Input
Amino acid sequence: MASVADPRVKDLAIGGVRVPAALVRETWPDPYMDIEDYDPESDLMSLNMGPQHPSTHGVLRVKLFLDGEICVKCVPYLGYLHRGVEKLCEKLTYVQVPSVVDKNDYVSPMMNELAVCMSFEKLLGIEVPERALVMRTVIAELQRLSSHLLWVGTWGLDMGGAIGGGGSLFIHTFRERELFLDLFEELTGGRFHYNHHTPGGQRHDIPPGWEAQVHQVLNVLESRLIEYEDLCTDNHIFQARTVGVGVIDPVLAMELGVSGPVARASGIDHDLRRDAPYAAYDRVKVQVPVRQEGDCFARYMVRLAEMRESIRIVRCLIDDIPEGPICGAKMVKLPGSQKVKAKEFVYAYSAIESPRGELGTWVVGQPKSASAYRCKIRPPSYHLVSMLPYLCVGQMISDIVVVLGSLDPILGEVDR
Amino acid sequence: MIPDDARALFERLLEEKDPHPEIGPRVPCDQLLAVARALKEELEYRFFVYCAAAHFPAPKDAEEGTPAEILVAYRVRRLGPGTVTVPFHVRVPVDTASPSLASLYAGADWQEREQYDLVGALFEGHPDLRRIMMPEDWEGHPLRREYAIDTPHFPWR
Amino acid sequence: MALDESNKPFEHPVYSVLEQIPGGAIGLTTLDSLLTWGQRNSLWVFPMATSCCGIEFMAAACSRFDMDRIGSIARGTPRQCDVMVIAGTITVKMAPRVKKLWDQMPEPKWAIAMGSCAISGDFYRDIYSVVPGVDVFMPIDVYVPGCPPNPEALLEGMRALQQKIEAQRNGTWVEPVISADSHGLRAPGIPRVGSPSREDSVDEAQLASVQGMGLGGAEKRENE
Output
């Protein structure tokens, strides 16, 4: 590895991508550092953030050891929302699982369903028809838009406080998000948890007039995105709070398994939609926004750019959805009818690019059984939260709130 | 499918010509760190995807002495255009430790803790192997096959 | 639910003064109805939002389904709130914290269980780490069903709570009886609060678990 101290080296080739050398550090903070070693004389305060706190990221508890205002060590605790989904998946049949994993990443539920259904299709050998593939892509991008809208709103809320100005960004983005939830309600009947994807395709077909509604919503969103940029991007206070805060080393991100907009903001040019296309992503050339600064502002810019890209992808696909069946497997009437046909244990893994990163499912299939033997969900937010002990060291408390928000973890999928 | 450069590495280090396409070759415990280091440093598979464990109790009709096993499956990825993943796995008897990859991949740290918590897979050389999802004083490993899903826990359920 | 004496309709010291003045009873009723109107129309909410219902709660607070127009705003601390909305699944690890926060809320206080997970644990009710319904450890006034409930359903639930508060203050509220017989439905392993089959040992154990958190308790102050 070339020396990172050499200023002529602009980027390094690591792990298959080129990352900006300015962000790569020689050493990382030790998450298991003993507090006594820090400074035996000083009196460190231990502050508990959570598991219930107004920053709306869910039930995460973070124990901070503070030297004045600066954090010296950070220990996250998980498990406050551990609902045993993986154990439940062993009891349910393959068809029943998507409605359960809906609740993992509860901000973009169809992503979970898609990840799980793709793994099951690989395991059981089910073909998915064309119409379903294109619909999956369209819906995934709409979900990405609604997820990023929620992120922008709640991040603004974290930074500004409900009464201190963050509330205005929050209310603006939720207004747009309601339009997307209306779209999904037209399609599936549910605002929030859909049970739409099934191994083999989907359950609900596009109702008449849906495409026109999608176009209308996207036009509205495009004009509102300009409003959000006016509100935030050139705003001095916003920049003061986010530029240079929470810089992530791309090599650390890679080793921790962090992908998605967080990794792309640190210069890692990787996106499963472009590099390992699934569903109908090979038909649209996905342009992946990448930034080189690695701070919170870069993550914000990457997500805004991703929203624009999602709008473009949906517009590309929505008018040309091929006709045909929406489900490859016979619409399952009896829960036990999809079974593993092989005689020994079979394994499958497939991953999608969720708004937080690589969301995958590793599933073990038992012969002649309609239930998975072991279904492990690989949640991207788990790795994002595992970044906290490295990221929070040296930051002030107010910066930690901003950093945690910019990572966008969803505790439902961290704890499952 | 396992990419060719990883296949060549497995053949060189493990003499394994035909690894399983989905969970990779079975790596003996004493060679796990060497294989992982080679994948990371020689072939640039630096992205840690997952560490997943599954409990396989001894089948009922097996002979006397067939141990219950824990399968620990790993996967690493090389990023960028043409991204590929390489799986590999370890099978150990229950309550035997397999080596931990936490010294090589920072992401293995928490993943292995979770698998210890839920499945009871032990990892040797892990900096801090304790429960992460369940409360600290929980007994039992919930994702073991014999663990009852509706285990009560006074006074909350 | 009026489980203990401190939860009866609020009385102000001015009442005893007004009672002594001849004709003061009219002033009393007017004052009382004014205070009732004020209380029920300004219920500040403490969102105990753990999972998906929390997002619908946020949507209910936003511009389409505005919660502020019925006087409710969400506050981050239990000390300033009247109503606790439990939105989301409560797990065994989280339950002592929820109970602690409930105990920290000053009287008079009410609770709304939002969503199936808070009412009965939804389909997670048989799982080793999920509390099957929040009323296993705290009294609930309004149950709002749904997974997640529409924000309109939550607003309806808050409206129902407002009507309940008014009825309680007027003295026209009839307390529903929780029978020990579960009418053919499956009851949770721990009897619900207010159920005749619930024993004091359960209450004491839950309180002990709450007090055991923090210094010297189950989570020791470790320097890790």
Observations:
- Residues 1-7, 215-224 of chain C have pLDDT under 50 and may be disordered.
- Chain C touches chain A through 36 residues (CB under 8 Å).
